[in-house]
Write a structure and sequence with these properties.
Elements lengths: L10 H19 L8 H15 L4 H10 L1 H11 L10 H14 L7 E4 L5 H13 L7 E6 L2 H8 L3 E2 L3 H10 L10 E4 L2 E4 L1 H4 L2 E5 L11 E5 L9 H14 E8 L14 E3 L6 E4 L2
Parallel strand pairs: 1-2, 1-7, 2-6, 7-8
Antiparallel strand pairs: 3-5, 4-5, 8-10, 9-10
Length: 280
């Protein structure tokens, strides 16, 4: 009996479509998602299908191959979702404590927000550095893989009407200043003040393929790593190790396991969250 029109594709067909699409993204745009967790990729691709009103991943592939804008949009969708300022108060509280532990000893500390979740994450760090009196001598390197994510960061802002919402998150993170004072308001938008933005350097950088680019006193990558498969995760953790100064701090998404190759090089800083000091 012929398959019913409109029926969902069999799982093996969908898996083949995903494999072909990921190969197309690599060949057409140079971005390699093949070693990402397949469940995460599948979830994001299904979201892209719903958003575009498409029936199959093959139809999405046709758009991606022939329409550069569709390709750029899909690359953005497969990346880290943009974050709001202080959207994770627990992470911000821990980061506030970490800054005082790992940065003051360095004359010119560098922080790497690897595969940064947009301006919201970078602005959160800039405000924390200001409150810890470290902002003037600390450089934030915020890297993203796609050109679209880089463009979004360069033109970032958020609706001024959401200031009170973000201020509540800020207070839950331990902040006590007037949150709105960190922003310029105009045209219904809020943008971080230039003095704070000036210490943020945005760059396009691909964790999957690029080599170590600098030495950092703090590396934070808590939002991209959950999407990486085991081999890619090991590759990226080695990259971070090669880029982290001794006694620097690494903030990641999940605890290091005892059998991780680099686990012996790190000392846990918190029993609840996976933040580590490099000791070897």
């Amino acid at each position: 009996m012929a398959a019913l029109r409109g029926a969902a594709p069999a799982p093996d067909v969908e898996e083949l479509e995903i494999a072909l699409l990921l190969e197309a993204l690599l060949q057409r745009y140079g971005y390699d998602f093949r070693a990402f967790e397949r469940a995460a990729v599948r979830r994001k691709l299904r979201g892209a299908l719903r958003q575009r009103g498409l029936a199959s991943i093959s139809a999405l592939q046709e758009q991606v191959l022939h329409q550069p804008q569709a390709g750029a949009a899909l690359l953005r969708a497969l990346g880290v979702a943009p974050a709001a300022p202080f959207d994770d108060p627990a992470e911000a509280r821990q980061l506030r404590a970490v800054l005082g532990a790992c940065l003051p000893a360095s004359a010119a500390p560098k922080v790497w927000l690897a595969e940064c979740a947009g301006a919201g994450q970078a602005w959160t760090l800039a405000i924390l550095l200001q409150e810890e009196r470290l902002q003037a001598r600390t450089e934030i390197f915020a890297t993203v893989a796609s050109e679209q994510a880089l463009a979004e960061a360069a033109d970032a802002g958020f609706p001024a009407a959401r200031l009170d919402e973000y201020a509540a998150h800020y207070r839950r993170s331990g902040g006590s200043a007037r949150f709105a004072d960190y922003f310029e308001l105009g045209g219904g938008r809020a943008v971080l003040r230039p003095a704070l933005r000036s210490r943020i350097t945005w760059a396009q950088y691909n964790l999957v393929t690029d080599a170590s680019c600098n030495e950092f006193q703090l590396i934070v990558c808590r939002r991209a790593l959950p999407d990486y498969g085991p081999l890619l995760r090991r590759r990226v953790l080695q990259l971070f190790h090669d880029s982290l100064a001794r006694f620097g701090v690494l903030g990641i998404d999940a605890p290091l396991r005892a059998d991780d190759a680099l686990a012996h090089c790190y000392q846990a800083l918190d029993a609840q969250q996976p933040w580590y000091k490099r000791i070897a």
